[in-house]
Amino acid sequence: MPSIQCDNGKWKWGENGSCIYDSKKESDDANSDYKNITIVSGPPCSGKNTYVKNNKNRGDVVWDFDKIHSALTDESTHNHIEQVRKYIFSMRETFYNDLQNENELKVWIINSSPIKSVRNELAEKLNANIIYLKRTKDECLNVANNERPDEWKGYIENYFDRFEEIEENENIKIIEIKAISDIDFTPTQGMIDEAKKGKEWREEFGRGGTEVGLKTANMIISNSLSADRVTRMYSYLQRHEVDKQGEGFSPDEDGFPSAGRIAWALWGGDAAVKWSERKRNEIIAEEKKDERNLKNYNQMEKRIFNIETRVDSTEDGRDLVVGHASVYDSRSNNLGGFYEFIERGAFTEELIANSDVRALINHDPNLILARNTSGTLNLTADERGLKYEFEMPETSYGKDLAISMKRGDITQSSFAFTVAEDDWSTDEEGNNIRTIKKIDRLYDVSPVTYPAYNMAESDLVVAKRGLKEYQESLVEETKEEIIEEKENNLVRNSLVSLNIELKKRK
Question: Which among 130, 153, 229, 233 is least surrounded, fewest beta carbons within 10 Å?
Answer without folding.
Answer: 153
